[in-house]
Amino acid sequence: LWRFSIPAIVGMLVNALYNIVDRIYVGQGVGSLGIAGIAISFPYMMLMMSFGMLVGMGSTALVSIKLGERKKDEAERTLGNTLTLMVIVSIGLSVFGLLFIKPILIISGGSETVLPYALDYLRIILIGGVFMGVGFGMNNIIRAEGNPRTAMATMLIGALMNSILDPIFIFWFHWGIKGAAIATILSQLVSAVWVLRYFLSGKSTLHLHLKNLRLHIPIVSKIFAIGTAPFVLQIGATLLYVILNNFLNRYGGDTAISVMGIINSVNMLILMPIFGINQGSQPIIGYNYGAQQFDRVKETVKTASLSATGVVILGFIFLMAFPQQFIMLFNKTDQELILMGTRAMRIIQLTLPLLGFQVVGTGYFFAVGKAKEAMFLSLTRQLLILLPLVVILPRFFGLIGIFIAAPISDGLSFVLTAIFLGIEYKKLDQKHLETFTKVNMEAS
Predict the structure, then answer these.
(1) Cα(382)–Cα(397) distance, rounded to whole angstroms?
(2) Residues 6+ apart with CB under 8 A from 33
(3) What is the mean pLDDT of each run of 10 residues along the chain (444 residues)?
(4) DSSP H helical ranges for 380-398
(5) Which H or E run includes 185?
(6) What is d(CA 46, CA 186) in angstroms, rounded to the nearest whole number?
């Protein structure tokens, strides 16, 4: 688990630096309106990530299962189909976004003051959308085939380049928020080239073959079936961000949008390690599930859950002790931003220690290809609980109602995940007993 998870943790943390570094440099170099501009652009970027997860996460689980079943040819066919799907989907979303960019940003909660910043940022991001899609989708398969260090290197190279280019483009060239966007797409281009080079170099376990680029309907169907759960989760998050931005604008103005953008960036620092643990556990869970080693499946879930919980508890302590300092990383002069952000940080992070188990527990269902259960748990947290709370609570508590919606939703989601995983464990025990009995009968 640690051999797979540590590179994934590092990779996810480094990947989080894309948005964090952009917002820090934009906040210091452009101001709080620049941060709000990125926050308004984020829902459509999340929509693109949704389709990336539909293909990427579905392919990852399918590749892991096929390798566990010793079906390398089918795993390679999945790899080729993944590349083709990512290119088609990414280009389609980029073209659509460029054609309707202004209405998209207005729907996402953009005000007249923030809209120019968001337009400058998102237009450039969309031009390089295919680089993000290919790098993200294919990098997941590198991890699935058992090379987490290479997957980590892919993210590391892109994020480090972004961190270097951001201050150069923003402060030296004086390109402002456009500079942050240019730095991002150039970094994603390098990551995409690195991933393709890996699969074409002959060093990978799975290899890209021209014949496998032709879409194979049964494989595409399986990818979509497995990837639907994380896709729905991300779509739910996208819808949530759109509604959230509009309600934040209504009850707190542009400053509230900037505050939530900062808190989401800080959350990435805490959540990306547990997403890394989750990603590191999924190939192990999928492989052992395919090999019918159910005790190892349960042991992996247990170890991953405890590790993820330890990480979020540590993050919780730091955020509760130094909320103001985290806000001031992004802007040191806007006192309204600092005061509102400090208060919001303490409220939103109240149930942070519960998220480690919730993420790993939901990830289990992704890993074993149980799309319905994973989809329900994903929908529950994003749409069925949090979204109604965001709409209802501000009517009674104003802006504070938006902030308290998150901890309530996380607490209820934790309970539901525990119930579902408990039921699943009983099924695993029954399968283990059946396998054990069958082996003993064959031996006799």
Answers:
(1) 21
(2) 113, 114, 117, 254, 258
(3) 77 71 86 90 89 86 82 88 93 96 93 93 94 86 78 82 91 92 93 90 83 90 83 80 92 93 88 86 85 86 93 94 92 90 94 92 85 79 85 94 94 93 86 65 62
(4) 387-392, 394-397
(5) helix 176-200
(6) 19
